[in-house]
Amino acid sequence: MFICFSSANCSAEIINVGPGTSFHPTGSDDQNVINAAIQSADSGDTVQLASTTFHISSPIIMKSGVTLNGNGIGATVIYCDNPGSNFATQNIIDCKGISDIEISNFLIDGGWGSLSKMHAAKNKYREYEKGVFLSGCSNIVIHDLKMQYSMGDFICCKKNKASTIAVFPEP
């Protein structure tokens, strides 16, 4: 017997983002389709990223109550186009003042391509670029993510409610 006490969790939907879906990537500025899927989601829904590379040039903006899930670190990639641009001084996944989210199962590639290119770049990128930025958040779960070729912090937490952020690898 299944009893649901919260209508948001009982009617949770999976919103697919990828080739052949309503939210299909174009190969550039794919943050637009990901953000549109997130904004269309209700609390309890999952935005499911397909096994493909999503090219982004500005942040992915998370929303309370939404799960952002890929098909695995080797399958789903968020790739930052033109990392030397102003985008490199922003957050790749932006979470501000939200709660009850999960982010999992994909690779974030900062777009630098190699460690030598990263070390030759201007130092300002090391201070500002963040993989996942959490500010004023609560009840956050992050797991099975990897970040490569990025200058900044993988996960940056600022003014969050203590003990409500969980980050862990796959079991």
Terminal CA distance reads 29 Å
Q: For the residues shown, what is the average pLDDT?
A: 83
Structural class: mainly beta
- Find the count of extended strands (DSSP E, 2+ residues): 12
Secondary structure: helix percent = 10-25%
Instruction: Describe the sheet with the most strands.
Output: 8 strands, parallel
Order of helices and strands: HEHEEEEEEEHHEEEE
Q: Please, how many helices?
A: 4
Radius of gyration: 16 Å
- Give the overall form: globular
**Unreliable residue stretches:** 1-8
Strand share of the residues? 35-45%
Summarize the structure.
The protein has about 170 residues and is mainly beta. It has helices spanning about 5-10, 30-40, 115-120, 125-130, and strands at about 15, 45-50, 55, 60, 65-70, 75-80, 90-95, 100-110, 130-135, 140-150, 155-160, 165-170.
